[in-house]
Amino acid sequence: MDVLKNHFDVVVIGSGPGGEGASIMLAKSGKSVAVIENHVLVGGGCTHLGTIPSKTLIHVVRQFSEEKKSRLFNRGHHHVKVTFDDLMAAVKDVVDQQVREREGFYERNGIEVIQGFARFVDSHSIEVSDESDNHRQFTADYFVVATGSHPYRPEDIDFNNPRVVDSDTILQMRELPSTLTVYGAGVIGCEYASTFKDLGVRVNLINTRERLLEYLDEEISNALSYHMRDEQGLVIRQNEEYERVEVSEAGVVLHLATGKVIKSDMLLWANGRTGNSTGLGLEAIGIEVDHRGNLAVNDAYQTALPHIYAIGDIVGFPNLASAAYDQGRFAGTHIAEGHCDERLVRDIPTGIYTSPEISCLGGTEQELTEQRIPYEVGRSFFRNLARGQITAHKAGMLKLLFHRETLEILGIHCFGHNAAEILHIGQAIMAQPVPYNNIKYFINTTFNYPTMAEAYRVAALNGFNRL
Question: Does domain 164-271 correspond to CATH entry 3.50.50.60?
């Protein structure tokens, strides 16, 4: 019988993408590693509450929506019905597969997984409390805090009522509402609003800003607004703030500060997230937490105590699973070797799984204009591509921004089916140094035909011909 040891070279708190990346890197470097996970199963919020279940739901709903629109099945003699139980069965199947994969990673690398909630006793000791209220102490030379984040919940809103949900609880509903109000039009709000509309739910999307996803290139943001409003039929209200929420057996009433009243069966609160730092005992050991529950770190992801690192959502922007994993590997290398010669890429791709998707990398037109960088624009509209016509995915575009003189690619912005996949073709070229990062690469490259990848050649020619 294995005896659980009490001292490790490194203790990682959290088994989401960041914790996984750090612990595996450290184990492969010969360090003894323990991972503390508050959930019963590994994977963290990403696997059980966020990225994996939400993206699985989005994919299954997209399949359902496309079947309804199919040239073969849209003639009135096929009526497909779907229940929320059907959807959640598909979600559970993928989550279970992901858990088995992650458990295998830890087992093969000799990483001890300890279930429970961790709290710092001192700067080199933690206490772990499990579900049975058993307490054990562990010590380590280094720690990596990778506890993630959770949805922000205003105190004046009753989240105990099943009619009020957030991104952690929305998939616990028992049946689909007829009407849904989504408060907050960030990535999570836009993704769920788009998905539930594809299921036939009437959706109100309340945006606290002047336009959707303001950090996007304005043309892409406007394209998303148009598609969600005119093609999908969502009701979007921009630049609004809530005043109060009333919940009754009849439904939810959202009162806005402008005097508008929005009634629906259910409210999805999707406005902000908070780092999971409460109860970790960080303040007692000299690590401050900001008003969002996040920790400050340096370029090496070290906190105020150099042997304690923090990665992922707990350090704030960019709040992406992909970035968290890379941060974990970076921090693990820094611990194992005392330095890390590699530097995380400056430009991190963003994938937004609305219907259709959005993905972007690098500068926007607005940013390049403010920086007075001479740029040109190349566009390819999916409706003009043979592959887009064949697959009936004609909504969307690929937009390339490049330097007028050096021809260096400065930004890639894609809106349309499989945008998150299409982006990586351009990312590979954009990551090269000049002169290899050059718009002419796409002009001189032969793409399979017909493909969506061909959009790069079309967009490159469209922009280059303006020079």
Answer: yes
